[in-house]
Amino acid sequence: MTDPQNWHSPNDDGRPAPAFGAQPPTGAWTPPPRPGLIPLRPLGFGTLLWAPFQVLRRNPKATFGSALLVQGAITLITLVVVGLVTFFALDRVASAPIEDRAQVEAGATLTIVLSALVPLALSVLASALLQGVIVVEVARATLGEKLRLGALWRSAGRRLWPLALWTCLLSAGLIVGIGVVAGAVAAFVMIGGGWVALAVVSGILGSLALLSLGAWLFTRTSLVPSLIVLERLGIGAAVRRSWSLTQGYFWRTLGVQFLVAAIVNIVAQVVSTPLSLLFGVAVSLVDPNAALDAYLPSVILYVLIIFVALVLGAVVSVVQSATTALIYIDLRMRKEGLDLELARFVESVPGSDVPDPYLVPTPAVSGPETVRA
Predict the structure, then answer these.
(1) Confidence band (pLDDT; 50, 70, 90) for 25?
(2) Are residues 79 and 169 in contact, defined by beta-carbon separation less than 8 angstroms?
(3) What is the C-alpha separation between 51 and 141, in angstroms, rounded?
(4) How many domains does the chain have?
(5) How far apart are CA 41 and CA 48, in angstroms?
(6) Distance of alpha carbon 51 from alpha carbon 31, whole angstroms
(7) What's the pLDDT score for residue 5?
(8) Which domain holds residue 288?
(9) Coiled coil where (predicted)?
């Protein structure tokens, strides 16, 4: 006789449905459980599109709060450091003798550029930390866990330096690629004559080639942050493993990332553009005769636009980071049966010695993969 405590709702055919973790009758099929963010089975294309937005809804204080805190801190540091250095540098230029003004201007320009390196370095660390936070949140949310902001930061902070180094390598590669194309165009322009037409052609073709190469490399290595955080790999091992996991799923991976990025950026533009126009009109209506100081309306407008940009930027960063983490989990389900390990972890008795399901034993990495539809 069936224990009524193990059943909680009827199916369409009138039979009771098993509660999560209960044993179904012999020969009956039950769908894989969904204890948290996503079902524990290979994800469909639609699920990969909407699940990143569910990350924001499920734990907004830890995800959106982290992104807003990080981006707000970087913006404030940038305004303070670069703003103060620029103020004193320009004041020094204004007070310099006319015969020395050219040298003072050159020194002031160099000082301002160097001051911008401070918030730039901090932004690299901050973006790496935020990416790690979202990866941990997606991984634990899939298991039905809901961590607080402090716990997420501590988990991501343990892998901060490899994440930051990987971010620097990506940025350096992009700068080198742009520099090569720009250098070729500048060289042809300097020669002059018929080489100018070649400069235009090389600029167009070089930009298209750089865009294609960048999209290909970014897609094949997009799982590196998830691998660094969840599998605790080094950068070299993470790149090789990301290359292996995306093998055969390049277009699917690129398509999901492109569509999610397009959605969030279109929404951000739809929200920010009318607000920018509205703020300008509102300032004119509040102070039509310019009775206030001349700079005050501009300062108010600038602060409001920065606030809106911070909110939208936080949403975009969370959704895009969550997308890559979900793609990582989906590919491991398809190629390595991760869904079985996740289900085993979820159904285990609390306090039991069950290993982290995301860690990969060495034989599993080098062994053959079974691709699942």
Answers:
(1) very low
(2) no
(3) 11
(4) 1
(5) 12
(6) 19
(7) 39
(8) 49-345
(9) none
CA torsion 97→103→109→114, rounded to 10°?
Answer: -120
pLDDT band at 220 (very low <50, low <70, confident <90, very high): very high
**Is 28 domain-assigned?**
no
197: number of CA atoms within 13 Å, CB side? 2
Coil/strand/helix, residue 79: helix
Give the residue carrying structure tokens 């909110």. 311
Gap between the Cα atoms of 34 and 139, Å rounded:
13
d(CA 63, CA 318): 7
Do the beta carbons of residue 107 and residue 62 sit within 8 Å?
no
Exposure of 344 in the CB half-sphere (CA atoms within 13 A):
11
Residue 7 in 3-state DSSP? strand
One DSSP character per residue, 10-31 reads E-TTSPEEEPTTPPPPTT---P
CA distance 153 to 104: 44
> For residue 227, what are its two tokens?
């691998």
Cα separation of 333 and 38, whole Å?
12
5 located within any domain:
no
pLDDT on residue 39: 87
Q: Which is nearest to 217 in space by CA: 184, 256, 177?
A: 177
Find the range with the poorest average confidence among 9-13, 146-150, 195-199, 301-305: 9-13
Q: Residue 318: inside a domain, yes or no?
A: yes
User: Hey, what amino acid is at 159?
Assistant: R
Q: CA distances (Å), 85 to each of 89, 108, 110, 123, 313, in order?
A: 6, 9, 11, 18, 26
Please return the burial class of 370, using the count of CB atoms within 10 Å of its CB with bins 0-12, 13-18 and 19+. Answer: exposed
In this structure, is residue 362 part of a structural domain?
no
- pTM of this structure: 0.79
Report phi then psi at 295, rounded to 5. -85, -20
> What DSSP letter does each residue of 254-308 carry, written as one string?
HHHHHHHHHHHHHHHHHHHHHHHHHHHHHHHHHSTT--S-TTHHHHHHHHHHHHH
CA distance 83 to 90: 11
